[in-house]
């Protein structure tokens, strides 16, 4: 079933209104429900899950430093949209099939409100996970202006819950950013990019088995999910009509597994102004941008003097990355279309500033602890890929316990064939470098022998990050200060199929 491209307009998620707001705090309620939604005009409506009856969920906009309380409410049915593999840790028969917990990705937040994978809850909070602490989460929003997103994080079924539609944008604003006169209002648009596969009847397809089925299991987890259709903001291959002026786009890769290398078929520059954790020091002109799952990038695209042109946003990242197949240029090699067809409604006075904000480098001299952590690929009893961090499963004793206010460097030693987007909760980090090393020697002798020089982060990564591409056969070094909260957090691979099985570890920030 080949769907026509660029026949449906890009939807823009609404801004969520708070239930209560005064000078002290803001309060929201967010319901999770099942509903049907048109994802393409040539398809029957698809049954999806979403926040506030929308997929993606509504955009939550807050100010830096604003105290925000959110009650996340599970009103989903008892039956899951997709088949569950009960052999996956945290998803055994002894827990309800449908359970949720929400994580604001990139948030600076107390641990009880972080969306810990075992803090799940069911409809009406009837059943809750062992680490459930409160019904109403508190967000202190101690970040600078940045593009965050909220999504499900339930242990053992995160891949299914997000694929069903449980994701939305969470934007933090501040006056310093407003003063830069970036494109704003209707000229600032979030773009959530995902891949899906559809059944003939328009329902979402998620595989029950890997390519080599596991005969003794009815449903088995798969090593990665690669969809054959690209959606932006919940619409298949949409188009957006734009004026001949500058626009700001907040790009988010919310796919389960797929990486995107984004370009414009006009060959023109995009001007990147921000990474995961906020503004860069100065904009960079780039012709392509790499986004691993969960990574964000803010770009300004200038459509001035392009009246009447159609510009296609393309993707040429192999899937799985980096060793997989190149995308078909006629299908998943295309993301969406911009049509420069709207008349200019007013003079474009927005700017691409020469300088934005200082991004002070964390000094390596301030480091109190260095950790060497491996990314591993082993086999389980069914012969399936079992992805681990530091060769430890989720429920092994906690081994990473940074002290509040201290600075650490983590060496992410990737001995697998995949690039893994590694995400740490609570904090933003900076990428120091990546370096090739001799994997065979490391596996035999546990010695890192570098085989090339250290490569600095790409220009597009030289800001605050919460997710980093740890490439195969490389050591990726990141540096960060732990705080401002103590408590139980996690770090994991953001390929959702890896995270669920079992490339996720708790860590604890101690006093």
Automatic annotation (TrEMBL):
GO terms for molecular function: copper ion binding; oxidoreductase activity. Gene3D superfamilies: Cupredoxins - blue copper proteins (2.60.40.420). The keyword Metal-binding does not apply. Coiled coil: none annotated. Keywords: Capsid protein, Virion. Pfam families: Cu-oxidase, Cu-oxidase_2, Cu-oxidase_3. It comes from the Bacteria. Residues 44-80, 99-175, 206-313, 382-509 form the Plastocyanin-like domain. The keyword Secreted does not apply. Belongs to the multicopper oxidase family. This is Spore coat protein A. The gene is cotA.
């Amino acid at each position: 079933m080949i769907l026509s491209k660029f026949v449906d307009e890009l939807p823009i998620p609404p801004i969520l209104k708070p239930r209560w707001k005064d000078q002290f705090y803001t309060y929201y309620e967010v319901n999770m429900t099942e509903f049907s939604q048109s994802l393409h005009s040539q398809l029957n409506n698809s049954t999806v899950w979403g926040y506030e009856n929308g997929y993606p969920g509504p955009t939550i906009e807050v100010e830096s430093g604003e105290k925000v309380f959110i009650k996340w409410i599970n009103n989903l049915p008892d039956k899951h949209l997709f088949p569950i593999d009960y052999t996956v840790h945290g998803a055994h028969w002894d827990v309800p099939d449908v359970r949720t917990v929400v994580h604001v990705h990139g948030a600076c937040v107390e641990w009880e409100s972080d969306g810990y994978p075992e803090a799940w809850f069911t409809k009406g909070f009837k059943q809750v996970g062992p680490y459930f602490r409160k019904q109403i989460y508190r967000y202190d929003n101690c970040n600078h202006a940045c593009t965050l997103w909220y999504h499900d994080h339930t242990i053992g079924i995160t891949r299914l819950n997000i694929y069903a539609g449980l994701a939305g944008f969470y934007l933090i604003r501040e006056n310093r950013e407003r003063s830069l006169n970036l494109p704003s209002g209707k000229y600032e648009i979030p773009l959530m990019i995902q891949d899906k596969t559809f059944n003939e009847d328009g329902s979402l397809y998620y595989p029950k088995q890997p390519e080599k089925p596991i005969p003794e299991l009815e449903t088995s987890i798969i090593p990665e999910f690669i969809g054959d259709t690209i959606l932006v903001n919940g619409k298949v291959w949409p188009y957006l009509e734009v004026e001949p002026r500058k626009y700001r786009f907040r790009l988010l890769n919310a796919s389960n597994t797929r990486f995107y290398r984004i370009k414009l078929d006009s060959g023109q520059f995009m001007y990147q102004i921000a990474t995961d954790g906020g503004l860069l020091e100065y904009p960079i002109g780039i012709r392509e941008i790499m986004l691993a799952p969960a990574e964000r990038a803010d770009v300004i695209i200038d459509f001035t003097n392009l009246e009447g042109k159609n510009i296609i946003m393309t993707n040429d990242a192999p899937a799985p990355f980096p060793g997989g197949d190149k995308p078909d240029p006629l299908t998943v090699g295309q993301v969406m279309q911009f049509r420069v067809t709207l008349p200019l409604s007013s003079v474009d006075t927005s700017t691409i500033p020469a300088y934005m904000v200082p991004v002070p480098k964390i000094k390596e001299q301030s480091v109190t602890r260095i950790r060497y952590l491996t990314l591993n690929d082993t086999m389980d009893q069914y012969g399936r890929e079992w992805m681990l961090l530091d060769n430890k499963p989720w429920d092994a004793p906690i081994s990473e316990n940074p002290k509040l206010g201290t600075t650490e460097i983590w060496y992410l030693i990737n001995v697998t064939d995949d690039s893994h987007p590694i995400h740490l909760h609570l904090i933003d980090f900076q990428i120091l470098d990546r370096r090739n090393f001799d994997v065979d020697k490391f596996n035999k002798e546990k010695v890192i022998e570098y085989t090339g020089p250290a490569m600095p982060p790409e220009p597009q990564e030289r800001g605050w990050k919460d997710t980093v591409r740890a490439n195969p056969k490389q050591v990726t070094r990141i540096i960060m200060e732990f705080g401002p909260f103590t408590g139980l957090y996690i770090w994991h691979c953001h390929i959702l199929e890896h995270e669920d099985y079992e490339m996720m570890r708790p860590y604890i920030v101690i006093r």
